[in-house]
Each structure stands twice: as C-alpha cells, then as structure tokens.
Amino acid sequence: MYSAHIVRRKVIPIITSTSLSQTRAKSHSVKSVESPIEEKEKNFANGPDFSDFVSGSVPQGQNWDTYKGKLKRELGESDRLRLPPWLKTEIPIGKNFARLKENLRGLNLHTVCEEAKCPNIGECWGGGPDNVATATIMLMGDTCTRGCRFCSVKTSKAPLPLDPNEPKNTSDAIAAWGLDYVVLTSVDRDDLPDGGSAHVAETVKHLKRNIPSLLVEVLSPDFRGNKDHVASVVNSGLDVFAHNIETVERLTPFVRDPRAKYRQTMEVHKYAKEINPTLVTKTSIMLGLGESDEEILQTMKG
C-alpha cells in the first residue's frame, strides 16, 4: 500500500474562532484553582502557531535550483525519474506503529491515516521525539458515499451498516492510549437519513463521559447542509468543530464530489457559529492545485 517515495501535500489549517480559554466567563474577581480541563484549554490557546508546523527537520537549502538529479527525461529515455529527498518519506515501521495497528484492528476501528493513504503515517503512528503516537479515528466505516478526486478512501453508494459498538470502542481505544487531545473524522454517509450525525455525536458523548479532561475535535461531514444534523454534532460537547473547504471556489467542481459544494461548506461554518458563537471552528485548504493568491485570500475571508 505504501511506497518509500510519496509526495507530501501541503494543507494549511485555518482556525476561525477565538481561543478556547477566551470563552470562559471572567466575571469572578476571586482567583480560583484551575480545573484540569481549564488548564488544557489554556495550553491549547497558547499552543503552536504556523511557524511550528513548518519548522523541524525541513532540509535547508534544498530546492529545484540546487537539485542535481534529473527533472525530465531526454528524448528516447525510459528510466524512471527519482523524486528529490525532501519529497520522500520512509516506509512505516516500528513498535508503536505495529501496536497501534493491532489495537485498532482488534476494536474494528478505522483511521483516515490508513484509508486516505497518508504519507506521514509512519511519523504519527511511530511517535516523534517524545515517543507519543497519534492517529485520527475515522468513524462510520472505511467506505464513503462520495468520490472526491484528491481522496483515496474507498467509495460506494451503499456502504455497510454502521457498527453500533463503534462509539464505545472508540472511547475505549482513546482511553487506553492516554491522549489529551483527539481528532475524530468520518466518511460521508449520504445513504443514511441523518448522514450519521447522531452516530458522531454519540461517539463524542462517550468520550466526554469516560474521559472528562479530553479535548475532542471533530472533522465533520457537511450532512448536505442540513442544519439539524449539523446542530447534533455541534451540541455534542466537542471542543473544536472542523469542516474542510479543501480548495478555492473556482476549483471546487474539479476537486470535490458534486455534493460537496463550496457555498454549502461556508454555510455549515456559519451555522455552527450561530449555534455556539464561542465554539472554536476550523477549516483547511490544499495548496498547489492551480489556485491564485487572490483566490486563497478570498477563501480565508469567507
């Protein structure tokens, strides 16, 4: 499934809300002892910024101008061209990787890391310098009812029924991993009357009951713009509501499934804020698909 030579796609997360710590009421003049959840929210608010995401082991001074390898074949050549080292990643191996994979399979859980064939799976599952392994649980099975062109997740008009044990199994897995912050995502299930919104909400509630100090982010479907279904997820007790715009408006018909509309995504974010104005909301956009700087700025402005 995985190759040692995989191109990385740059994705920029956009946080569209005030920090979680600013949502707390500040009417008390007497200083009180912070609860664990308040302490975590403060750490979240003072967390990494964009510079932290582009720092680290990025090769310095390596670009197309200094690359000594061949960038194109000469007339009559058929040898495979090699990618430069900064566009390669290692095949995933290691104890953490194997343990996490075995744990997920035992609970019949899926991850977007595997289903979307993410090239960074070895880094996340294997653990970084702090040896902390992370994964993004993908709810509602491994098969999507939509077929966005950039995505490797399997598609079908009629996926398997939802696993009723998935909310509890997800909670058990996260508790065993001892995480402070978890991201839940899901496939789109247009075959279900509510798009699976109740299932996602139930998973969040299980997590919050079993691990009260856990911060939960949900990368949510659009539920075809149905406000009641969006509200079900927003009101589930999550800490961050995410829904990706993916690309600029002009390129949306060529990149996303026809049911995933640009304006619909914007409306989902708008409605999430109407339900809970203090909720942290978030979206992401892929770069390198032919968009202009002006289009990127317009997307960020909404």
Report on this structure:
The chain is 32% helix and 12% strand. It contains eleven helices and nine strands. A seven-stranded mixed β-sheet has the order 1-9-8-7-6-3-2. A two-stranded parallel sheet has the order 4-5. The longest helix has 14 residues, at 197-210. The chain starts with 10 loop residues before the first strand and ends with a helix.
Features:
alpha/beta, 32% helix, 302 residues, 9 strands, 11 helices
Secondary structure: helix percent? 25-40%
What shape does the CA trace take?
Answer: globular
C-alpha Rg (nearest Å): 21 Å
Helix tally?
11
- Low confidence ranges: 1-10, 15-29
Reading the helices and strands in chain order gives EHHHEHHEEEHEHEHEHHEH
Q: Major sheet, described briefly?
A: 7 strands, mixed
Draw up the topology in text.
Blueprint: E1 11-15, H1 36-45, H2 50-53, H3 95-106, E2 110-111, H4 112-115, H5 121-126, E3 137-139, E4 143-144, E5 154-155, H6 166-177, E6 181-186, H7 197-210, E7 215-219, H8 227-234, E8 240-242, H9 252-255, H10 262-275, E9 280-286, H11 293-301
Parallel strand pairs: 3-6, 4-5, 6-7, 7-8, 8-9
Antiparallel strand pairs: 1-9, 2-3
Helix pairs in contact: 6-7, 7-8, 8-10
